[in-house]
Each structure stands twice: as structure tokens, then as C-alpha cells.
Design a protein that fits this description.
- The chain has about 575 residues and is an alpha+beta fold.
- The chain has 5 domains: about 160 residues, 3-Layer(aba) Sandwich (Rossmann fold); about 80 residues, Beta Barrel (Elongation Factor Tu (Ef-tu), domain 3), CATH 2.40.30; about 100 residues, Translation factors (Elongation Factor Tu (Ef-tu), domain 3, Beta Barrel), CATH 2.40.30.10; about 60 residues; about 110 residues, Orthogonal Bundle (Arc Repressor Mutant, subunit A), CATH 1.10.10.10.
- Helices cover about 30% and strands about 30% of the residues.
- It is built from 18 helices and 31 strands.
- The strands form 9 sheets. A 6-stranded mixed beta sheet has the order 2-3-1-4-5-6, with helices on both faces. Strands 8, 9, 11, 12, 13 and 15 form a 6-stranded antiparallel beta sheet that branches.
- A hairpin with a 2-residue loop joins strand 19 and strand 20.
- Helix 17 packs across helix 18.
- The longest helix has 19 residues.
- The chain is elongated and about 125 Å long.
Length: about 575
């Protein structure tokens, strides 16, 4: 399907032309038909001689309803500019053309109506000349009369040629359906309509509507049920999970996770503005209309603070309108999660950054380099592709080269920590995270490279060095244990040697002592020595027999035996005797 929207001054025959093309009445309200004045959006459709199906969004031309007009053209890829031969270029013609120009419209067709009551030639020439200076460029024009039918066939043929040249929509893209109507149907419930500009929708699909998840019960396109609608198309969706009272024009159905709601955006205007910018413009995108506060940055760059969040992406086209002067400005969204501007001169610097920021893959790389680390899903929801060379770790995306730079800093963090705390093997992972200013603890393992390793929640360098005084005291204990392997030093002896809890823990981590029980420290080879002594006993044996074989006290024998049990060296029997496994 193809979709086109009308544009033009009030009473220039837009609705009559739509009726002549489609045979349908676009005005939906009885008040519209009574007054002969389009107030809200109208919709009609037809099948062209080539077999192409064309949907037409008919917009109001009166200045009081320009907001409705903007809601109709926001998502439509082509425009049908309508100018009456007996009136020519008029106020709303200028405003509608300015809107199309600000939206960056590239595809349009001119229809000069009422050719039966005035010579269309001069109007055709004048309007085409005016349009040539806009984003639409050289626009073909056709003279037509909705009353006599003159030129309708030529207009249909011109439409065929226009539609052939439209760019193909991305049917695999995520859905962002701007709602332009919401109503109820008896027996069906809530129905919304809109122009599907990208992606596809089918019954059973789930979408986000603000924070609410809704399900598509049914899909209609051009008044007929369809199993699947693909862009570009006018669609009507029967929704489950939302009441019509909770919907309004400007809401959007979104593919979950594909868009982020933004209330502060940085944009660049089409040109450096002349004169003063509106402090509180009205922002239009899709069918949405929101207020905003505008802050100039530098040159053509400005920051918009929206009165309510909108699902925006990098590259979206916005229209900024000053209701008082009717001035309209086109703008491209450059950042939907911009940095705060706190320092003096930050606004000017930010404007310069936006002016220098490229688009596409190069723009994605530049933006990621500024952010350094961002969630991959958030980066994609902003509208950026993943740039070449970026590193993905779990849900995180790191700028190209950043992982290597940060990994090179980890050894210094470990060395500095060990100098301050020589009895600890290395900093906890959380300390490394804070030192590198990482947003998540899960990123630390990706930055620990050999010879460092992550062990027991700490980043360690594998060395077993102890402070000299501690090493001397440990050496003295190990020397005594060589003479008597089970003569664990008493607590007062450990204190006198300067071995407190932290020093002993460091000796155990370094592998120079073994803790077999609370306050009981022996040499690392005690397991083998103890087993050899027990092997000389008749099996099974009692604790008392083990104690005698080891030549030690119950203070050492009880925790040592339990330690051997837990290590699987010995097995405790029901009568509390043991045997070697």
C-alpha cells in the first residue's frame, strides 16, 4: 500500500479532489459535511489502474486546525499539494508548504483544482516555482476539476509515477505507530488507527503504550481484516489491555525495548536561525504535539525540554512551531540522552560537538566514544548501530579500544592497593570498579588480564610476599613446626610474635600456614604427616589413640581430626571412632 496526505488552503477543494479520486467521502463528521469544512483528519482509499492501493489522509486547511493537519502529515511519505485556480497561493498554502519543507518532505505532487472556473496555467507556474525552493524541489503539476472530472485521469497517472519513486520502507524495523484516532466498536472494544511507516504488525503482537503492554487482537487495513500489515500502510488495530479513555492522539504503539522515552533532546535546526527563537515552541512529531522549552546551544544546535516524554530516536525529524507567529522550523534529533550542561561555556561546547558529529556508523562511534560505556539495548534504542571495534560484555557496550585502555590501568590499581594494605592479596572487585568508574561490577572480569586473576571476589596478582616482620614471625613458627608438626603455637605466642588475625589470614592465603581450627595454625604439609601417623594405628581408632600418635594435646587434636574429616582423609563411624579412607 502507498499513503499520501493532502496539503493546502481552506476551501481549495482538497476533500472534493479526494472524493473524485477515490469515490469515498473523507469527511467523517456530520458537522464537516454540513459546513463543507474539513475539521479533523479524513481518510479514503482507492485502487489505481496499475493495481497499487492508495490511502489518502485528507487534512484540514483552516488555520485553526493546523495542529490536526500536522498530525496527518507527520508519518506520511508523500504529499498532494492542492491549490485552487481561482485563488492561487494563499495564507494556508504558504503555511502548509512551510510545514512540509520543515518536515523535509522530498516527494510531492501539485494539483491545481477548480480548473473549470479559472485558468490554471498561471497558478501552476507560480506554485511550482515556489515549491522549487523547498525540500520538495521540482514538483510535477496537474490541472484538475473535481466537478467536471477534467484532469482526474492525468492526476491519477501522475500519482502512479510519484508512488513508483518513493523509497522502500523498512519492513523489518521496529514499530512506532503514532495514533491519530482512538475509538470503540461494539463487540470489539478499543480500536486505534495510524500510518504504519516502518515494520509490520499482526494479531497477537505485543506493544508498549507508555508503561502499559497491550496486545493486538485484530488488524484491518483499508476496511478489510488482514493477517499481517507491512509498511507503508494505513492500519486499524483492535487492542486488548487498554480502554479508549486512556488513549489520545499522539500516543504511540512501540516495539518493546526498541525506543526510549526522552524528555530532553538535542537537535540541530536546518539552518542557523535568523532572529530570536521561540522560548516555548510547540513540537510536532508523528501525530504527537507537545510543548517545550528551548535553550540555544551554539549555531543551529538547540536543546528542547519537552513537557512530556516522547519515544524519539537519533535522526527523527521534528517540527518546531511558534503558534503566535506561525513560524515553523525543521530540526533533526541528534541526541535523546544528552549530557547535563553545568559548567560555564558548556552549552557552546555542546553545540560545537553536535556540529562536528557525523551521521551513520561514524556518528555512532563518536557518540559511543563520548559515553564510553552504555547498555547495548539502550544504545540501539537511541537509534545508533553498534560501531565497528566496539566491545560487548554481557549487556554492556564499550567504546572501541576502551577495554584495552582500562585493562592496562588495573595493575596500577592492584599495586597501589597492596602497598596500602600489604596483608591483603588484592583489592575487592568493587574497589576496582570504583577506581575505573565502571557502571557495573560485572564489567570487572572483562578487564582483568594475565598475570592478574579474579579469585574469591578479589583481583590478585598471584604473589605471596608478606611484609618482612610478618614473614620473619611466620618463618620462626614454621621452624618450630619442622621439629614438632603438631605443636600449634598458643594464642599468647602468636600475639607476642606480632601475628594478629590479619597477619595470620595473609599467611594462610600465601600458603605458608594452614588453619585447621579456630586459633590452630600448622604447616601446609600437616595433612600428609597426620595421615602417615594414623596409618600406623589399627583401624578403626579413637580420638585418644590419634592424639597419642600425633603427640599433641586435645586443643590441637580435636580440630585437626575434624579438619581431616571435612577433607575426606578420615571417616567418622557411628560409635565416634575413625578410620582412614
Amino acid at each position: 500500500m502507498d499513503v499520501i496526505a493532502t496539503a493546502g488552503h481552506v476551501d481549495h477543494g482538497k476533500s472534493a479532489l479526494v472524493r473524485a479520486l477515490t469515490g469515498m467521502e473523507p469527511d467523517r463528521w456530520a458537522e464537516e459535511r454540513r459546513r463543507g469544512l474539513t475539521i479533523d483528519l479524513g481518510f479514503a482509499w482507492t485502487t489505481l489502474p496499475s493495481g497499487r492501493r492508495l490511502a489518502v489522509v485528507d487534512v484540514p486547511g483552516h488555520e485553526r486546525f493546523v495542529g490536526n493537519m500536522l498530525a496527518g502529515v507527520g508519518s506520511v511519505p508523500a504529499a498532494l499539494v492542492v491549490v485552487a485556480a481561482d485563488d492561487g497561493w494563499s495564507a494556508q498554502t504558504a503555511e502548509h508548504v512551510a510545514v512540509l519543507d520543515a518536515l523535509g518532505a522530498r516527494h510531492a505532487l501539485l494539483a491545481v483544482t477548480k480548473a473549470d472556473i479559472a485558468d490554471p496555467g498561471p497558478v501552476l507556474a507560480e506554485v511550482r516555482e515556489r515549491l522549487a525552493g523547498t525540500s520538495m524541489g521540482e514538483v510535477p503539476g496537474v490541472a484538475v476539476s473535481s466537478v467536471t472530472g477534467e484532469g482526474v485521469a492525468e492526476l491519477t497517472a501522475a500519482l502512479e509515477r510519484l508512488l513508483v519513486g518513493l523509497p522502500a520502507p523498512d519492513t523489518a524495523a521496529p514499530v512506532r505507530l503514532w495514533i491519530d484516532r482512538a475509538f470503540t466498536i461494539t463487540g470489539a472494544g478499543t480500536v486505534v488507527t495510524g500510518t504504519l511507516a516502518a515494520g509490520a504488525v499482526a494479531p497477537g503482537d505485543r506493544f508498549l503504550l507508555g508503561a502499559r503492554e497491550v496486545t493486538v487482537r485484530g488488524v484491518q487495513s483499508l476496511g478489510e481484516p488482514v493477517e499481517r500489515a507491512t509498511a507503508t500502510a494505513r492500519v486499524a488495530l483492535n487492542l486488548r489491555g487498554v480502554a479508549v479513555e486512556n488513549l489520545s492522539r499522539g500516543d504511540a504503539l512501540l516495539t518493546p525495548g526498541a525506543f526510549r522515552e526522552a524528555d530532553v533532546v538535542d537537535v540541530t535546526l536546518d539552518a542557523v536561525p535568523e532572529g530570536q527563537l521561540p522560548a516555548e515552541p510547540v513540537v510536532h512529531v508523528g501525530s504527537a504535539t507537545v510543548g517545550a522549552r528551548l535553550r540555544p546551544l551554539d549555531g543551529a544546535a538547540v536543546r528542547l525540554r519537552l513537557t512530556r516524554p516522547l519515544p524519539l530516536r537519533i535522526g527523527d525529524r521534528l517540527l518546531l512551531r511558534d503558534p503566535g507567529t506561525r513560524r515553523v522550523l525543521g530540526a533533526d534529533v541528534r541526541d535523546v540522552d544528552p549530557p547535563e550542561l553545568r559548567r560555564r561555556g558548556a552549552a557552546r561546547q555542546r553545540g560545537a560537538e553536535l556540529a562536528a558529529q557525523p551521521s551513520g556508523d561514524a556518528g555512532a562511534a563518536a557518540d559511543l566514544a563520548r559515553r564510553k560505556i552504555v547498555r547495548t539495548a539502550d544504545f540501539a534504542a537511541m537509534g545508533w548501530p553498534v560501531p565497528a571495534g566496539a566491545t560487548e560484555h554481557g549487556p554492556w557496550l564499550l567504546a572501541p579500544g576502551l577495554a584495552e585502555q582500562m585493562a592496562a590501568r588495573v595493575p596500577d590499581v592492584v599495586a597501589r592497593y597492596r602497598r596500602l594494605r600489604p596483608l591483603e592479596p588484592g583489592p575487592p572487585a568493587e574497589v576496582v570498579r570504583r577506581a575505573l568508574e565502571l557502571p557495573d561490577l560485572d564489567l570487572v572480569p572483562a578487564l582483568v588480564r594475565e598475570p592478574l586473576l579474579l579469585r574469591g571476589g578479589r583481583v590478585v596478582d598471584g604473589t605471596t610476599d608478606l611484609p618482612p616482620a610478618v614473614q620473619k614471625a611466620v618463618d620462626e613458627i614454621r621452624a618450630r613446626l619442622v621439629l614438632d608438626p603438631f605443636a600449634a603455637p598458643e594464642a599468647p605466642d602468636l600475639v607476642a610474635a606480632g601475628l594478629g588475625t590479619r597477619e595470620l589470614a595473609a599467611a594462610v592465603r600465601s600458603g605458608q600456614l594452614v588453619k585447621v581450627g579456630e586459633g590452630i595454625f600448622l604447616a601446609p604439609d600437616v595433612e600428609g604427616v597426620a595421615r602417615n601417623r594414623l596409618a600406623t594405628l589399627a583401624q578403626p581408632f579413637t580420638l585418644s589413640q590419634a592424639r597419642q600418635a600425633w603427640g599433641t594435646s586435645r586443643r590441637v587434636a580435636v580440630p585437626l581430626m575434624e579438619w581431616l574429616d571435612t577433607r575426606g582423609v578420615t571417616e567418622r563411624l557411628p560409635d565416634n571412632s575413625r578410620r582412614l579412607r
